[in-house]
Specification:
With 416 residues, the chain is α+β, with helices and mostly antiparallel strands. It has 2 domains: 218 residues, Antithrombin, Chain I, domain 2; 129 residues, no CATH class. 25% of the residues lie in helices and 27% in strands. The chain has 11 helices and 15 strands. Strands 2-1-3-13-12-11 form a 6-stranded mixed sheet. A 6-stranded antiparallel sheet has the order 9-6-7-8-14-15. α2 crosses α3 and α3 packs antiparallel against α4. The longest helix has 20 residues. It is elongated. The two termini are 38 Å apart.
């Protein structure tokens, strides 16, 4: 049962955490490319809102994608919102904007978090400005535009905005020497960060290595390196498994769980691991703790995702083809836009990321359309991305943001 809990542990039970993470996992590893920045959590929460207004096979598709029962679809978004309001590192918001042709179902509206309903005026420029202002206000300015094209027919917009910010417990320092090899050897473009840890934060398996970078306010960022023959999806899959195992070990230390990999500090000199080498040195004091030195590039990346390309994984296929959304509004509606804007930055002092996810719905009526004299078309370009990262809520293991980095200096990587 959900309560107005003070923490995410109170708000979501472990099964719901697994449901959210499973959507992130299945979505990212089945994509043709792994984006530089993405939030499965932002999509999961919004799919729950959409599922609460669906019926029939459309509802079943959305429930299968989220892992939720219909009773949970109105409880989870509100519980998640309440918990994040009391978590300093996290922010979450939802909003619904309805046009004049849409009559929202009062029962559906009653199940939404309070004060989320707005109106679309029909003036595309004015509506876009209002939605953009909402996106900026609910992501601390990290995302300044709602990823919905209001020059196309839109009668209803559902949106979620999410942001995470954390400072490293052990800050990095900037290393003056560049990377000796690899694609990021240009010191004018790539900043190399260095940190020393006196704890067991580096784990390895035969084909992957995972570093845990601890932030304050219960946020961890995991960095994953994979063997060269692994695809980005395979590296991401291993990283998610490592993060989830770490979280479950904390939640239930006596459970019979197999810890992911082994500590890199157990490697002998000369023993191989992905991206890891063992260095021995002498000093006048004995070693009393594990020692790890990490080098990582500073990065700032973003992605624009067209979620219609992931309709099967997200349970949206029927909703995009005129499925049953009769519990949402009196009029027949179709999802004609589904997009996410996400940005993430990893620096010497901390990590910050934000995502805005939006579904645009169109009335399936047959009235004569108004002349479209200024129709715009936006060309999208796809970038492939070579180390993975996750931002995770430490106590629960809830995955907040994920991505794949091949160019740390790339400001915008659009993925159709």
């Amino acid at each position: 049962m959900h309560t107005q809990g003070r923490t995410l542990q109170d708000a979501l039970h472990p099964g719901e955490i697994l449901d959210a993470n499973s959507l992130t996992d299945s979505w990212l590893i089945t994509r043709e490319t792994v984006p530089a920045a993405a939030s499965g959590l932002g999509i999961w929460a919004l799919l729950a809102v959409l599922a609460s207004g669906a019926d029939g096979d459309t509802r079943e598709d959305l429930l299968d994608a989220t892992g939720l029962e219909i009773e949970q679809t109105s409880l989870v978004p509100t519980a998640l919102l309440d918990a994040m309001r009391s978590t300093p590192a996290l922010d979450l918001a939802y909003a619904v904007w309805a046009g004049a042709r849409v009559t929202l179902d009062p029962a559906w509206v009653a199940g939404l978090p309070s004060q989320v309903i707005g109106s679309l005026t029909g003036d595309a420029a004015a509506d876009q400005a209002a939605l953009d202002a909402w996106a900026a206000a609910n992501t601390a300015g990290l995302i300044g535009r709602m990823p919905i094209d209001l020059t196309r027919p839109v009668d209803l917009v559902l949106a979620s905005a999410f942001a995470v910010r954390t400072k490293w417990i052990t800050p990095f320092t900037e290393r003056h020497a560049p990377f000796a090899a690899g694609p990021w050897t240009d010191p004018s473009r790539h900043r190399v960060l260095e940190a020393d840890y006196r704890e067991d934060v580096l784990r390895v398996v035969d084909d992957a290595t995972v570093l845990t970078v601890r932030g304050d306010d219960d946020i961890d960022v995991f960095l994953g390196l994979g063997r060269e023959d692994l695809s980005p999806q395979q590296v991401m899959e291993r990283l998610i498994a490592a993060a989830e195992t770490t979280a479950w070990d904390r939640l239930d230390p006596v459970a019979d769980l197999t810890t992911w990999g082994r500590s890199a500090t157990e490697l002998a000199p000369g023993e191989q691991a992905v991206g890891v080498r063992i260095v021995e040195y002498r000093t006048d004091t004995p070693q009393t703790t594990p020692e790890v030195r990490a080098y990582a590039p500073e990065f700032r990346v973003a992605a624009e995702l067209d979620l219609r390309d992931d309709a099967d994984a997200l349970g949206l296929t029927r909703a995009m083809k005129g499925g049953n959304l009769s519990r949402l509004a009196a009029e027949p509606l179709i999802v004609n836009q589904a997009r996410q804007s996400c940005t993430a930055a990893f620096s010497a002092t901390g990590f910050e990321a934000a995502a805005v996810t939006a579904f645009g719905l169109e009335w399936m009526g047959f009235e004569e359309p108004a002349p479209q004299t200024h129709r715009h078309r936006c060309a999208q370009v796809t970038f492939d991305h070579p180390f993975s990262y996750l931002a995770v809520h430490r106590p629960t293991g809830l995955i907040l943001v994920a991505g794949w980095i091949d160019d740390p200096t790339r400001e915008l990587a659009s993925t159709s």
